[in-house]
TrEMBL record:
Similarity section: Belongs to the aldo/keto reductase family.
Domain NADP-dependent oxidoreductase: 19-300
Membrane-spanning ranges: none
InterPro entries: AKR, AKR1C, Aldo/ket_reductase_CS, NAD(P)_OxRdtase_dom_sf, NADP_OxRdtase_dom
Higher taxonomy: Eukaryota, Metazoa, Chordata, Craniata, Vertebrata
PANTHER family referenced in this protein's UniProt entry, alphabetically: ALDO/KETO REDUCTASE
Keyword terms: NADP, Oxidoreductase
Positions of the catalytic residues: 55
Name assigned to this protein: NADP-dependent oxidoreductase domain-containing protein
Positions of the record's site feature: Lowers pKa of active site Tyr: 84
GO MF assignments: oxidoreductase activity
Keyword Oxidoreductase (UniProt): yes
Amino acid sequence: MDPKSQRVKLNDGHFIPVLGFGTYAPPEVAKKEALEFTPFAIEVGFRHIDCAHAYQNEEEIGQVIRSKIADGTVKREDIFCTSKLWLTSLRPELVRPALEKSLKNLQLDYVDLYIMHYPMALKPGEELFPKDENGKLIFDSVDFCRTWEALEKCKDAGLAKSIGVSNFNHKQLERILNKPGLKYKPVCNQVECHPYLNQSKLLDFCKSHEIVLVAYAGLGSQRVKEWVNQNHPVLLEDPVLSAIAQKHKKTAALVALRYQIQRGVVVLAKGNNKKWIKENMQVFDFELTPEDMKAIDGLNRNIRYYELHL
């Protein structure tokens, strides 16, 4: 099966590949890993590349995309590139400059998807996490509905083909959906989602409004100490996942990814190991049974690996 054809339609008519390559890595290795693993991901068939200003490696990703276009591996239109608006740029007048900065770093004329990284604002400036003298984050008071209007203008200007959100709950989504004068609905909501946090209620809500749920941490997590609760059980060691994997002669990781795709979720797979990156493409080679799906549904225990306390 051709992975490049595995796409779902967004509510604005564009299409998003169901399997994406996540580019977040700890800051000290983010640039190095972007240069090492993103070209390989594109070579083995990944076409959806998930980036963000906050990952501090968009320049490197831009170099990789350029070189893969230059060597004939892909055309620009083959690549679905996402970037994200960081919390320090939620004031409406800062939105377009932030997107333009990401575009410059990525060496692109447009991104396929631009999303609001979190539904909350921090004090504008160069620092990703501005803090006061007591080490407390300095918040900014911005109505994210105004931020959304600025994102709509970016779509109209052709700088982003589609616009969406991330880390929103259903009430926050409703605030945008019910906003007077709404021009475009968010096409997606990117959230932590995996068998231990299956987000079934949020998924149902999103589906009812034609919003695609995009899953990050689909394999649990890389356990980055700043972001991740270290005390949780390791998802990929779960006995139920392991048994299903054995039955299909696949890995637990592939089962976790396939689970999302079969429930209509777009899933991101990160990779800092070439063997795993290549293996993730096998997600299109098998199908889980309804019994498998039900068993995996039963693993939900509302465990969040990513606890960015804002």
